[in-house]
Each structure stands twice: as C-alpha cells, then as structure tokens.
C-alpha cells in the first residue's frame, strides 16, 4: 500500500511559537518552540488507542499521493477539532480490474512531510491486511439512483467500494469519541453526495464538511492523477474545465435546450482529442437531470473524459 511496513512512529513537528514569557530575573526571554508529535498508526487498535480521551476528531481520508487539494482539507479541518486525523490507504475495492490500483502512485515520505507541515496530529496508514484482515464480504450498497449514474455508470461498483471503506474508516476513527467531523473535496462531487447520503441514512454521528476544489493557475482541477499527464496533455487538460464553464453559462440562458448543449459540448471536447464519458448539467440536490428554467445556484455541471491514458473528472456549481 502507500505505507511502508514499520512499527508505530512519532514524527516531531514544530508549530507556532508562543508569545515571549518574562524571565524570573525580569528580563525578556523567548519560550522554546512547542513540539507536537505526528503519530503514525497502522492498525485500528493502535488508532483507537491513540485517539482515546482526545475528544471528537476531524478526519481527512486520502489515498496518498497528496496535492494542495488534500492539504487544503487538512488546514480547513485543523480549527474544527482538537485532533486532526488523516488516513493514507489505497482502497482496492473501488478500482475496477483494468484500472490503476497497482500503478497508483505511493509517495509515503512526501505525504508525511506535507501532512506534518499542515498540522496533522495522527496519520492512519493501514496495510491492506490491517483494514481487510479477511475478505470484505459485507459491503455498503448505496442508492442506485445516486450511485449508479455518471461515475457509477462508467465505473460500476465504484461507490460500493468507496462507501465500504469510508464506513470502515469512520468506525476506526470515530469509535473512541462517538463521532466527529470528516472533510471531503467538492472535486469528487458525486462521491461527496454519496457519502453525505450514507451518513444520513445510517444516522452516523459524523458532520460532513465540503472543501472547495483547488485549481492550478490555468484552471485545471488538482488531482492525484494529473501526474500521469504528458507535458503536451497537461497543457491541454484545462480544456475540460473550460468546456464545463461554457456549458454552465449556456445552461442558464432562457429557453436553453440542455440535451443539445450537452451533446454540443461533448462533440467539441472530443474534437480536441478527448474521449468523453459525459458532460452534463444536473440538479445539485440529487444529480438528476436539470429541468429547463432552473434557477442559478441549484445546478452543477459535471464532466469526465480521458486525455491520452489519463481519465480526469471535474465539476462546476452553477
């Protein structure tokens, strides 16, 4: 997995220096910097022990290969709880057989350095045998109306894998406290909605907080898979977000024919060398097809397309 096999580790990190304290002799002297420990836990038992008595944590689940979008979630979660937990686990259950589970980048040292600098307190980095000690035959099956469309249509079973691992991670992270806060990025918009619905349906004591999509200066949504892009494809990759912006603006025009606009957007992107799965405008509340005349602030444009060998997704709230 993304983590090397080793014993539980404490990584020291310096945080904000407190104000100078007066010395007993009346002069000024600086207080030494506060030292915190970023604890690395491998098993559910270790994680629960580390969290015992620490209150309701904030949690950022990741598959590693971290970028600024992940770090923004960590920083967003830092003031929401006394303890910030991040997980690093590449979840086999959400990959189809032909997808990139084996080649998905594992960047353990860089990930730990970034999490430490962002103020993470505990990293949960289980091996596959730690999280799935036996075949995971019990799985969370999300509502097909939400999970079998869009990403779920092109990646069947994906959200079953996502929900199953998130449910297990929530059990590990929030067991000691009885609940807390979990942060997910809007870049994976459908995933965010599926997780919210799962939490609601199972009455889980977890507050789901959304983080805005982080973008490169040219507008490309940050993604761990952007690293797969060649230099030429990286220069073209922003075309996906541009197509979504054009589609979103057109969808708000009076009398807009959404089906025709979506087809036009798809054909235009394909003409630029993409293989497009979908470009569509949906209702934010349930991701069902948008109705003509829908008000601004109620829609989201979503897209997924392959450029070269890399499949990218993006969205834009309208």
Roughly what percent helix? 25-40%
- Please state the overall shape, judged from the principal axes of the Cα atoms: globular
* Structural Rg: 22 Å
Query: What's the tally of helices?
Result: 11
* CATH homology superfamily name of the largest domain: HUPs
- Which regions are unreliable across 5 or more consecutive residues at pLDDT < 50? 1-36
**Structural class assignment:** alpha/beta
Strand percentage, roughly?
15-25%
**Oligomeric state:** single chain
Distance between the termini: 38 Å
Strand order of the largest sheet: 1-4-7-6-5-8-9
Tell me the domain tally.
2
Return the string of H and E elements: EEEEHEHEHEHHHHEHEHHHEEE
Strand count: 12
**CATH architectural grouping of the largest domain:** 3-Layer(aba) Sandwich
CATH topology of the largest domain: Rossmann fold
* Global mean pLDDT: 90
Give a quick account of the main beta sheet: strands, pairing sense, barrel closure. 7 strands, mixed
The level 1 CATH classification of the largest domain is: Alpha Beta
């Amino acid at each position: 997995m993304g983590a090397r096999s080793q014993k539980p580790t404490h990584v020291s990190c310096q945080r904000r220096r407190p104000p100078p304290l007066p010395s007993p002799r009346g002069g000024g002297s600086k207080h030494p910097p506060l030292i915190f420990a970023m604890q690395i836990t491998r098993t559910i038992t270790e994680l629960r022990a580390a969290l015992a008595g620490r209150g309701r944590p904030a949690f950022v689940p990741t598959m590693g290969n971290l970028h600024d979008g992940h770090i923004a979630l960590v920083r967003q979660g830092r003031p929401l709880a006394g303890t910030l937990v991040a997980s690093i686990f590449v979840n086999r259950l959400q990959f189809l057989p032909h997808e990139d589970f084996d080649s998905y980048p594992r960047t353990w040292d860089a990930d730990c350095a970034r999490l430490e600098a962002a103020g993470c307190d505990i990293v949960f980095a289980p091996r596959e045998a730690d999280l799935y000690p036996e075949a995971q035959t019990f799985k969370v099956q999300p509502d097909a109306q939400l999970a079998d469309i869009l990403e779920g249509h092109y990646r069947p079973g994906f959200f079953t894998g996502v929900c199953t691992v998130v449910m297990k991670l929530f059990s590990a992270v929030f067991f000691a406290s009885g609940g807390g806060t979990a942060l997910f990025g809007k870049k994976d918009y459908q995933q965010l909605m599926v997780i919210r619905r799962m939490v609601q349906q199972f009455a889980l004591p977890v507050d789901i907080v959304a983080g805005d999509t982080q973008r490169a200066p040219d507008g490309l949504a940050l993604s761990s898979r952007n690293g797969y892009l060649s230099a030429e494809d990286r220069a073209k990759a922003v075309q996906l977000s541009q197509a979504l912006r054009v589609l979103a603006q057109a969808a708000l025009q009076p009398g807009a024919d959404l089906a025709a606009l979506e087809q036009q957007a798809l054909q235009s992107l394909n003409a630029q060398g993409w293989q497009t799965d979908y470009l569509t405008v949906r209702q934010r509340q349930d991701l069902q097809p948008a109705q003509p005349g829908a008000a601004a602030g109620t829609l989201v444009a979503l897209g997924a397309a392959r450029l070269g060998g890399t499949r990218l997704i993006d969205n834009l709230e309208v």
